[in-house]
Q: What sequence folds into this?
C-alpha cells in the first residue's frame, strides 16, 4: 500500500470544489462503506475501487486521483449510484473527474487508434457513446 | 390510434434485425407505430455533468419533433435511445432552471416542458395490449425454449425511468417471454453492465464484464439470451468470439416475430451470431 501524505501541498481544495460543482453531489457525505466497489463491474479488472476515488476526492488529492483508472473505465452503468446508502450519485462524481481531464483537452480515447475492422462492425451507438464520454 | 416511433441510428444499420421484427410484429398486433418524419441522433448517452446542457439538445430536439406529431407517447426500441430520451424528458419536466436555459438557447424551436411520455416497446406492449392478450395472439408458442432475459443497465437505471416498477428484480422481460410460450430463466446478472461503450476504450475490462453476464446466464441453463440493446448484442453476442463462453443471443423482437408466426426473413437472422442460427435450426424454427 502506497503511503498517503495529506497536507496543504498535496491537497487541492479547488479540485474538491470543482468535483462538487460539476457533479452536483456532496462527496463529503461518503462514509466509505464500499458498496460502490462491491457492485462495480469494472472494479476487478481495473484494480481501482470507486470507494478509494471517493476518499481521494474528498481530500482533493490530485496526484493520487490521476493514478486511478476507475473513472476512465467506468461505463456509467449507474449500479453504484442506485445502491449508495448515502444517496450519492457516484456516477456523477466519476463524470466530474472525466470532465476535469477532458476540459484540459486530454482525450481518453483516440479514434485513429481504433482498429479499422472494429470500426466497421461496431454499432453506431457504441461510437457515439464512447466519443461523447471519452473525448474532449 | 397511431403512436410516434423513434428508431435511432443503429436500428437503421447494424440492428435492422431488432427494428424490422419489432415493427412487423406491432403491425400484426394492430399497434400502429409511425416513424417521426424528421429525427436526429439522441446522443446515445445522457450527460451526467451538472453544467453540461449542450449534450441535452439532441434528445430534446427529438422530443420536440414528437410533440409536433400531436401524440402523447414516443416509442423507442433501442435501450440506449430509451434511456437517453426518457432521462432528458424527465429533466425537462422537473428541472425548471435547465428547461428555461435549453428552451431559451433553442429559440428556433417551440418551447418544450416534458409533455411527451417516452416509452420502450416492451412497456408499450404491456400497457397497450397486455400479456394475456399477447398470449392469445401467439400462433407459434416458443415451447421448450429456455430464454435468459437480459435488461442491462439502461432499461432499469436510474430507477425513475425503469420499465419495471421493481427495478431491483425486474420481471417485465420474463412476463413477455412467458406470454410467447418460452421458459424464462432468471439469472443474477440480468441487470449487470455488459461493458457498454468501454469496449472501444478498454476492451479487456468491458469483455470481463460481458463474460460475467454470459457465465451467469449459462448457469441458469438458458438456451439463448434475449436482449433489447444493439450494443449489448455486440459485447455479448459478436464479441463472444474473444471469450470462452458460447451461448446464442437474440433480440426480444425476433422472438416476438417468431412466436407470431411471421416470416423468418423479417427477422434478419443473418445479422445474428452463427450459433443463434444453429440453435434455431436445431429446434426446427424456420429460417430463410
A:
Amino acid at each position: 500500500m502506497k503511503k498517503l501524505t495529506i497536507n496543504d501541498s498535496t491537497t487541492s481544495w479547488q479540485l474538491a470544489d470543482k468535483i462538487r460543482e460539476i457533479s452536483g453531489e456532496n462527496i463529503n457525505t461518503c462514509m466509505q462503506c464500499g458498496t460502490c466497489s462491491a457492485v462495480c463491474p469494472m472494479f476487478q479488472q481495473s484494480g481501482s475501487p470507486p470507494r478509494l476515488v471517493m476518499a481521494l476526492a474528498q481530500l482533493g488529492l490530485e496526484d493520487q486521483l490521476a493514478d486511478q483508472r476507475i473513472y476512465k473505465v467506468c461505463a456509467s452503468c449507474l449500479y453504484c449510484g442506485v445502491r449508495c446508502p448515502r444517496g450519492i450519485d457516484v456516477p456523477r462524481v466519476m463524470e466530474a473527474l472525466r470532465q476535469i481531464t477532458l476540459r484540459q483537452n486530454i482525450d481518453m480515447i483516440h479514434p485513429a487508434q481504433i482498429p479499422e475492422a472494429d470500426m466497421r462492425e461496431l454499432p453506431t451507438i457504441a461510437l457515439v457513446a464512447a466519443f461523447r464520454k471519452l473525448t474532449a | 390510434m397511431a403512436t410516434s416511433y423513434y428508431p435511432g441510428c443503429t436500428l437503421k444499420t447494424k440492428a435492422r434485425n431488432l427494428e424490422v421484427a419489432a415493427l412487423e410484429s406491432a403491425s400484426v398486433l394492430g399497434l400502429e407505430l409511425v416513424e417521426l418524419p424528421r429525427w436526429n441522433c439522441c446522443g446515445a448517452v445522457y450527460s451526467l455533468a451538472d453544467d453540461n446542457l449542450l449534450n441535452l439538445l439532441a434528445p430534446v430536439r427529438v422530443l420536440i419533433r414528437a410533440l409536433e406529431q400531436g401524440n402523447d407517447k414516443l416509442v423507442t426500441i433501442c435501450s440506449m435511445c430509451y434511456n437517453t430520451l426518457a432521462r432528458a424528458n424527465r429533466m425537462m419536466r422537473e428541472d425548471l432552471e435547465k428547461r428555461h436555459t435549453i428552451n431559451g438557447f433553442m429559440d428556433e424551436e417551440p418551447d418544450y416542458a416534458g409533455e411527451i411520455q417516452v416509452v420502450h416497446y416492451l412497456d408499450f406492449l404491456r400497457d397497450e395490449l397486455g400479456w394475456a392478450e399477447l398470449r392469445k395472439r401467439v400462433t407459434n408458442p416458443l415451447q421448450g425454449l429456455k430464454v435468459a432475459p437480459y435488461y442491462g443497465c439502461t432499461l432499469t437505471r436510474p430507477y425513475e425511468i425503469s420499465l419495471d416498477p421493481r427495478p431491483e428484480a425486474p420481471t417485465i422481460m420474463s412476463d413477455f417471454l412467458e406470454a410467447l410460450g418460452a421458459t424464462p430463466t432468471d439469472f443474477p446478472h440480468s441487470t449487470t453492465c455488459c461493458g457498454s461503450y468501454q469496449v472501444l476504450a478498454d476492451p479487456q475490462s468491458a469483455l470481463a464484464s460481458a463474460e460475467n453476464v454470459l457465465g451467469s446466464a449459462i448457469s441458469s441453463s438458458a438456451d439463448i439470451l434475449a436482449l433489447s440493446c444493439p450494443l449489448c448484442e455486440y459485447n455479448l453476442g459478436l464479441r463472444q468470439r474473444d471469450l470462452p463462453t458460447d451461448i446464442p443471443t437474440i433480440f426480444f423482437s425476433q422472438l416476438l416475430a417468431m412466436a407470431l408466426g411471421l416470416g423468418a426473413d423479417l427477422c434478419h437472422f443473418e445479422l445474428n451470431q452463427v450459433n443463434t442460427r444453429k440453435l434455431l435450426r436445431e429446434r426446427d424454427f424456420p429460417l430463410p
